[in-house]
Amino acid sequence: MAKYIIGNMTGNSMDAIDLALTRFDGDIMADICTYTRPYSKDMQDKIENLRKQVFNKTRKQIEALPDFKQIHDDYIRQIAECINDMCAKNNIDKKTIDAIGFHGKTLDHNPPSKACLDNTEAYTLQMGSGQMLADLTGIPVVYDFRSDPLMAGFDGAPLVPPHNAHISQTEGDGCYYNGGNTSNFALIVNGTAQIGADAGPFNEYTDNFIRTYTDEAFDKDGQIGKNGKLDKNLLQELFNFGRRYYEAPLPKSGDPAYYHKKEIFDHVKDKGIRFEDAVHTFEYFAAYIAAQALTFVPDNIAMPPKMILFGGGWKNPVVKETFEKLLNGQSYVLPEHRQQFEKLTKRFATEPVVRTSDFGEYMEARLFADLALYKLEGRAWEIPEIVQAGKSVICGRVAMPAPPKKAYSDCVNRAAKGWQNEKNLL
Fold this sequence. Notes:
Oligomer: single chain
Strand content: 15-25%
Strand order of the largest sheet: 3-2-1-4-7-13
Structural class: alpha/beta
Number of strands: 13
């Protein structure tokens, strides 16, 4: 019997609430409707400030912050409003919806791949009460997906490779590349995810730089970046600031905290770099890191020539065109990376073909609908590093609708800092 699930995603950039209602019938999935609502700058600022407050804190410390509850509750209410609005506008009876797949808002991330380098304990932090969302919508909610793989010893991000493998039955094999606040990719060969990893910042620098110095939210259609030129010294500084992460082997999982935004923006100001040149270079860097990450793919994994793009960041023509040229050896690379990039271009059996996914820009929202389906059916989510380790992990927990409460105990995910010392984690 077909299942109908709403997937929700609010990315690191907090640009919008994205929803997709998807019908799952065996191996066939189809979006019934989609919905997006931009966040206000006020909400973006509150989340960014909260991110700074919660960094490296435990669950109890986070819950004790004076403004945490209000920001959390406002966040959940806005998502619930969007879900209810989408259903009303599309004449959808909420009783026919099996579940909501809810990601929550990532505020901090210290995965095993990084924790082992720092000699710290691994954790990941997502804000978002699935129970509150279920109570406000009247629909069961599946959520807290990242905790299970992390507590099993894996990074818990990116989660999208199995979903890329599922849709490859329609779109075919290829390198599925997501361009959001962070970029991540999955290589799908013979319908199976061979490897998946975060690459690094994508919209992160560009969007935050523009929001810091203008009233705009992002560089629409690359209009600012088109009027700028590549600053090679800034490109080098960008790589230097995040070098430890960018040179880490695959698989790996990133977080905006690794990229030192403020220091880079201070550098731009101190060096007097023209605004348009800075934006162009940030956009160039987004494509650069996306291509550079592919140089770490092990030689025993075939490099598919088909690059299938999804995520709003690829709408920027400066980024997309730079990525295409880098893959074909036609754009500037830092001297230290020339051999890496030359080797990468030789790994393609034919000239790389770059195209946008047929499944559209709501891939990440649909991903969490897919994850919710797997949880409801008790199936393990086939993250490549977990499968290759001979293990299996079922991701998520389920909240059933109930009368709304004054306080919720699941506002912070299970694998927040200090989870190793907590008991009765459901």
